[in-house]
What we know:
47% of the residues lie in helices and 18% in strands. By secondary structure, it is of the alpha/beta class.
Amino acid sequence: MATILIIEDEMPVAELIKERLEESGYKTLIAYSGSKGLGVATDHKPDLITLDIHLPDINGIEVLKMLKKDKDKSNIPVIVVTCDDTVEKECKELKAEGFVKKPINFGKLKEIINLVTEKEINQKK
Length: 125
């Protein structure tokens, strides 16, 4: 099953996402800041990333830009999970594969993850 990196600074939210994804069989990693998330993405090469926008050190938009500009990480699908619905258009322009508004609808999040992972599997065939 896929490994998902959760970049989320609010520990209870990160733990809830982790719990729900692991219930569905995914492996998870958590980073509580943008810089740590970039480091974990480099070290562990996750299959997918969920990304909050309001992070303590680097704004999630900047993290998304850095991920998409890095040749080793640009192919990692990113799903933005945030309470800030004013950034949805910008995230899509930056090639985020999905956008989920907080409070999180886990059915929608899992649906997007399934679509993205199926698409990735089909592209590798």
